[in-house]
Specification:
mainly beta, Jelly Rolls, 6-stranded antiparallel β-sheet, 5-stranded antiparallel β-sheet, 2 helices, 8% helix, EC 5.1.3.13
């Protein structure tokens, strides 16, 4: 496993070792001791253990996010695509951070097998780029409705450059379409 730093401190691309031959391929999608060792070698903080896995399936043009959870149930997320393609985004929402409101995006695909680590204090969202895109999340805390929040996906203060999908507008859940702007964010 190789961890790659991004322009947002703490947000990391995870490139697993993939072993292939004429029969197909094999990879460890997660290994706790190797994960912790790789973080230590990069000088990154050790997150809480993962306690929940989630799986979503989306049509092309579906945008989910930008979501976060506040303490005491803040979540770090390790995410990957196991079928299809998605543009995955993390936004720093930590008040007082020199990177507050900055974003980083990367394409995750079943083919590239990349993962993205999004620590606590970041909003997260993704845009499905193909039909039948399956997205897996490992989280460091359970879902807690009373702690959830969202930031508007197209907030000009953030300025995410979402890739085109052929639709005029992405398909959104009502709560995502009504999400507030970054400036009215609940304190993180």
């Amino acid at each position: 496993m190789k961890l790659v730093k991004t322009p947002l401190p703490g947000v990391l691309i995870v490139e697993p070792a993939v072993y292939g031959d004429e029969r197909g391929w094999f990879m460890e999608s997660f290994n706790e001791p190797r994960w912790r060792q790789a973080l230590e070698e990069l000088g990154e903080p050790q997150p809480r253990p993962f306690v929940q896995d989630n799986h979503s399936c989306s049509r092309a043009g579906v945008l989910r996010g930008l979501h976060y959870q506040l303490p005491p149930h803040a979540q770090g997320k390790l995410v990957r695509v196991v079928r299809g393609r998605a543009f995955d985004v993390a936004v720093d929402i930590r008040r007082g951070s020199e990177h507050f409101g900055k974003w980083f995006g990367v394409e995750l695909t079943a083919e590239n097998k990349r993962q993205l680590w999004i620590p606590e204090g970041f909003a997260h969202g993704f845009l499905a780029l193909e039909d039948d895109t399956h997205f897996l999340y490992k989280t460091t805390d359970v879902y807690a409705k009373e702690c959830e929040g969202a930031v508007r996906w197209d907030d000009p203060a953030i300025g995410i450059k979402w890739p085109p999908t052929g639709a005029a507008e992405p398909s959104l859940a009502p709560r995502d379409a009504m999400a507030p702007a970054l400036e009215s964010l609940r304190a993180c």
